[in-house]
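lol forgot to send this yesterday, sorry. struct tokens for the thing we talked abt
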């Protein structure tokens, strides 16, 4: 219970350092099709098994210098979007701990969807910003 409380506190404080985009950009050139065709092998890649989320970090992908993508299958609900956003914030917090000279922020750019093996699958694209 104590670990859960600490994690929630960290998330709350991290949220203060995270920029957000209240309206997703619909005309954005970011798309799953372009992502697969042009981004290649990620610089970092993780699978969060408990959540069923794949996390990829790409450098110079689709015109974004530092791109974070989170991929999950299932419904595109507000609860899932909120959970994915928290995971992105936690990733930025991790980067800030590793790089003591800077802090990192994430900014949601777009969520795109596709169907894979009969499952609705979604990709949330975030821009990672490094601030010194």
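and heres what i got for the seq, position by position
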């Amino acid at each position: 219970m104590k670990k859960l409380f600490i994690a929630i506190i960290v998330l709350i404080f991290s949220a203060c350092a995270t920029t957000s985009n209240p309206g997703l950009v619909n005309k954005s050139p970011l798309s799953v099709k372009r992502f697969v065709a042009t981004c290649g092998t990620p610089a970092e890649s993780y699978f969060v098994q408990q959540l069923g989320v794949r996390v990829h970090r790409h450098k110079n992908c689709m015109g974004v210098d530092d791109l974070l993508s989170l991929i999950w299958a299932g419904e595109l609900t507000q609860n899932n979007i909120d959970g994915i956003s928290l995971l992105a914030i936690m990733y930025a917090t991790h980067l800030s701990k590793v790089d003591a000279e800077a802090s990192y922020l994430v900014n949601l750019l777009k969520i795109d969807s596709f169907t894979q093996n009969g499952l609705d699958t979604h990709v949330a694209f975030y821009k990672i910003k490094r601030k010194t």
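The chain has three helices and five strands. anyway ping me if u want another try
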